[in-house]
Amino acid sequence: MFSLMANCCSWLKRWQEPVRKVTLIMVGLDNAGKTATVRGIQGESPEDVAPTVGFSKIDLKQGRFEVTIFDLGGGKRIRNIWRNYYAESYGVIFVVDSSDIARMEETKQAMIEVLNSPKISGKPVLVAEHNLFLFS
Ligand SMILES: Nc1nc2c(ncn2[C@@H]2O[C@H](COP(=O)(O)OP(=O)(O)OP(=O)(O)O)[C@@H](O)[C@H]2O)c(=O)[nH]1
Ligand SMILES: [Mg+2]
């Protein structure tokens, strides 16, 4: 009986908790597999994805969290748009294609630039490995 009451109380407590909104940005070099990863999260096929020009916005519900992911284009000429999203993001998902050894230095420089940004400093950063060689 006591355990039933305790369970009811904890369920009520959770039910009363407000829905939390979280905004994340997904960055990384072009062709790293960002959009394919997002598609995977949504249960869609990662194949035949076109390069992202600008951004795409994905809304997900995870428990009491409403998560918005901005999947940002990683092409060299559009990477400067990333900084426009830093202030509103709770954290960063940095996707790395670990099979692309030739672009590791470029990846490192892009990552340093993100991590050095004052608007990212102190925020959670997830480095997500995507191995295009293994998965394609
Ligand atoms: N079959 C398969 N193809 C993949 C996988 N991951 C990525 N690809 C393909 O690899 C290419 C690049 O992946 P994207 O997800 O578009 O890469 P991106 O990081 O979003 O690139 P930008 O949008 O240009 O910044 C696309 O043609 C994808 O379809 C995978 O796991 N399996
Ligand atoms: Mg993309």
Automatic annotation (TrEMBL):
GO terms for cellular component: ciliary membrane; motile cilium; non-motile cilium. GTP binds at residues 28-35, 74. The keyword ATP-binding does not apply. SUPFAM superfamilies: P-loop containing nucleoside triphosphate hydrolases. PROSITE patterns: ARF. Keywords: GTP-binding, Magnesium, Metal-binding, Nucleotide-binding. Mg(2+) binds at residues 35, 52. InterPro entries: Ciliary_GTPase (IPR051995), P-loop_NTPase (IPR027417), Small_GTP-bd (IPR005225), Small_GTPase_ARF/SAR (IPR006689). One of its GO terms (molecular function) is GTPase activity. One of its GO terms (biological process) is non-motile cilium assembly. The keyword GTP-binding applies. Pfam families: Arf. Belongs to the small GTPase superfamily. Arf family. This is ADP-ribosylation factor-like protein 13B. It comes from Accipiter nisus. The lineage of its organism: Eukaryota, Metazoa, Chordata, Craniata, Vertebrata.
